Amino acid sequence: MIEDIWQGGKVLPLVEDFYTIQGEGFHTGWAAYFIRLGGCDVGCRWCDAKMTWNVKAHPPVPISEIVARAASYPARSIVITGGEPLLYPLAPLTGELHARGLEIFLETSGSHPFSGTFDWVCLSPKKQMPPLDEAFARADELKVIVEGAADIDWAMACAERVGKECLLFLQPEWSRREEAMPLIVEHILKHPRWRASLQTHKYMHIP
Ligand code: SF4
For the domain 8-204, what is the CATH code? Predict the structure, then answer.
């Protein structure tokens, strides 16, 4: 946790929340309400959410406001993303969302301890700040971003640590997709437990 100004999770540093279509990973193509929290200490060079990094730019918002907005949309699925959402105590937020009958999907690097309860955990591990053991154990979906061949090796090492039921995805880093895609295709054809994930929201021109 960055600071205890979050009142045990009753307020959180909201960057944005919006209704859209999930563009990547297992739930690609499904409508979902996204809750994006600020703050991240992982520092990926290619991060497409750098505006989240400075948590001070995202003042605390009561979770009651966030939940009321999320519940007002037709989709029953909520994606909690960031930044790195596990920097904060998430039990109050996930408790209120579940009380509204919503299902909750988490997107995380797994580099901080878990809090809250989730219906689906998408673990996107980063070499420079690897996931904690519990993150591998809790992953329903492993989504590794690929820039080059070393990332395929990293993906294989991470796959050794997740559960047998965990789904495995390789996703090209957007700015290197032309170079990364052939590596991904070659790997999946050799190891068909893996699947390709594309950032389809960028093709659909939606957030
Ligand atoms: S972990 Fe996610 S939010 Fe944090 S720097 Fe990496 S891509 Fe960006």
Answer: 3.20.20.70
